[in-house]
Amino acid sequence: MSIRFILNRLFYTFIMFIFVVTLNFALFRLMPGDPLTMVSKEVASSPEGRATLEHLYGLDKPMFQQYIDYLKSMTTFDFGISFHYKQPVINILGDKIKNSLILGIAAVPLGIAIGIIGGIIASSRHGKKTDVIITTSSMIIYAIPTFWFAMILLMIFGVKLGWVPINSMVTPGANFLNNMEYIKDLLHHLIVPVISYSVAIFGSYLLIMRGAMIDVFTEDYVLTARAKGLKEKQVIMRHVVPNALLPISTTVIYSLAIIFTGAFSIEVLFSWPGMGKLMVESVNRRDYPIMQASNYLIAVAVILANFIMDVVYGYLDPRIRIG
Amino acid sequence: MVETQDVQNLRQREKELKKKKIYNNVKLFFSNKRAVFGVLLLGLFIAMSALGPIFYEYDHFKYFLGPRIGMPTEEFKLGFDEMGRDVFGAVIYGTRASLAIGLSVTLIVVLIGSTLGIVSGYFGGITDIIIMRITEVVSIIPTIPLILTLSVIIGQSFSNIIIILGVTSWTGTCKLVRSQTLSIKQRNYVERAKSIGASDAYIMVKHILPNVFPLIFSNIILTVQGAIMSESTLAFLGVGDPNIPTWGQLLRSAREQGAITTGSWWLFIPAGICLVGLASSFVFIGYGFDEINNPKLRRR
């Protein structure tokens, strides 16, 4: 891998970072309403109070100075005070990210794995009954809104059968004697969200993987492998799958990078106290510091992931870095 | 200028070939059972949105037409919502809203995506680099947080939702159009047009666009589905225009009313089935077109 290729990508990553971070600054200057009254109605109603608040939030400085201050505070993860919680944003985000990660780490890799394996099975029986059944059902699943599917699961397994709790992360108000009890309760609450989240993911992965596999099947080297007398299973596992995984690898990295942003509709439906739910609530409460901080964290994560994707792809596929 | 017999013959032959190609593609499309099913399903929804309101005799906005969250009756087959409104009417009118959103968002996506994609691929060089960098940035920013932020700035009216969805979902189309443009601009007829002095704009509109279009058709169809799904998710998260109820909004209010725990299935099952039906019809059709353009995908 050439240093030049990495430096080149690093340069673009930096430009992208500046662009996105500036956008995040500009968007929040365009927000409607008076942010000061959201901090405190009483204080902002008097002129002196307003001046104090403006000074506190640095709004009395010129725009460029505000931008520099913003860059400084973002890079040091000092996101200010939430309008709603009246607490430093960073304290609130920490917990929410952890909760989103619990859900995401349980569901996303599972969904990706099912999708990839399903895609391999479907494509290796291309045009046969198995393929038709798998592909058609994943197309339908691809068209099912995640939250609606989860609502049906909840109605059946949560309400009718009473097997699973219908919301939140742990039983509210429960006192856990030890960690085992807590984990057991958490796992119990995880079942339905994880199933619906992974089902939401696997449809698209299956269709992408199937398409990629079918593409590779027509390559000459597959013909060569078959002509050598390799068994079909060996052809698929040694020659087709690795090459089909190449285009999908970037999508996988990207999905993993944004795990912490949470699954919006699922978190809202299950009252799961994660990032997705927090961001939706912050929009409704017009809690700008939280929105801005979450946008920033997401931007940093996806830009980093994009850089890693480029480098990994360049490493796996020499055509990219040379061409 | 008098055309010689040969030229006329050639033109005739070209026309016949074109006709035959179209005929073959149509035949191919309709030999795909999923695609045919998708077309029928879509036809059903179009009929529902066009004819439903004509035959529907009540006012679906009227409060207390029946009891709050009232059970379905003989007359009102899908019961009533929390304000005593008829759910059946809301579901019928939701078809219109969903189709309107899907098609208008797609129009915006096609306009932005194909313009930028063709310009980027045709001119290349620094234009290409700038456009593709912007596309890359927009494509990696997760859509939902971006949409949530934009919805606070420009508001949540029906048309604003369409605009927001449009300006956040064009990147895939743009990349696809660019890559097709790159290959089409190498073709002989583009070279020929250039050599007889056709302008860049003329070539892009008359030669590249018509040839790119069929290749991105399945992407366009899937964009409609994506827009319908995104709108329903947004509505479920509380971003939407309360004056134009969509299926997503019905699902949201069903959840808020605790329809899952009370077992009021009529509040969320019919709307959800319609959503899945309409969305999957576009998926079936979209993948059907994919098989026409990509012969590898056809059955061996």
Features of this protein?
A: 323 residues; MetI-like fold; 15 helices; B: mainly alpha
In short:
Chain A is mainly alpha-helical and 323 residues long.
Task: Provide a descriptive summary of the structure in words.
- The complex is a heterodimer of chains A (323) and B (300).
- With 323 residues, chain A is mostly helical.
- Chain A has a domain at 91-286: MetI-like fold (Orthogonal Bundle).
- Chain A contains 15 helices and no strands.
- Chain A has helices at residues 3-29, 35-39, 41-45, 47-56, 63-75, 89-124, 129-142, 146-160, 179-217, 220-227, 232-257, 264-269, 275-285, 288-316, 318-322.
- The model of chain A has no long low-confidence stretch (mean pLDDT 87).
- Chain B has helices at residues 5-30, 33-55, 87-123, 125-140, 143-154, 158-168, 171-184, 188-195, 200-212, 217-237, 247-256, 259-262, 269-293.
- Classes of the chains: A mainly alpha (323), B mainly alpha (300).
- At the A-B interface, α1, α7, α8, α9 and α12 of A face α4, α5, α10, α11 and α13 of B.
**How confident is the prediction overall: mean pLDDT of chain B?**
87
- The CATH architecture name of the domain at 91-286 in chain A reads Orthogonal Bundle
Any low-confidence stretches of chain B, pLDDT <50, length ≥5? Answer: none
Q: Indicate the percent of residues in helices of chain B.
A: over 70%
Measured by residues with Cβ under 8 Å of the partner chain's Cβ, the largest interface is: A-B, 57 and 48 residues
Q: What is the CATH topology descriptor of the domain at 91-286 in chain A?
A: MetI-like fold
Instruction: For the record, give the distance between the C-alpha atoms at the N and C termini of chain B, rounded to a whole number.
Output: 49 Å
CATH class of the domain at 91-286 in chain A: Mainly Alpha
Structural class determined from secondary elements of chain B: mainly alpha
Report on the biggest sheet of chain A.
Answer: none
- State Rg of chain A: 24 Å
Task: Estimate the global geometry of chain A from the Cα principal axes.
Answer: flat
Strand content of chain B is under 5%
Beta-strand share of residues of chain A: under 5%
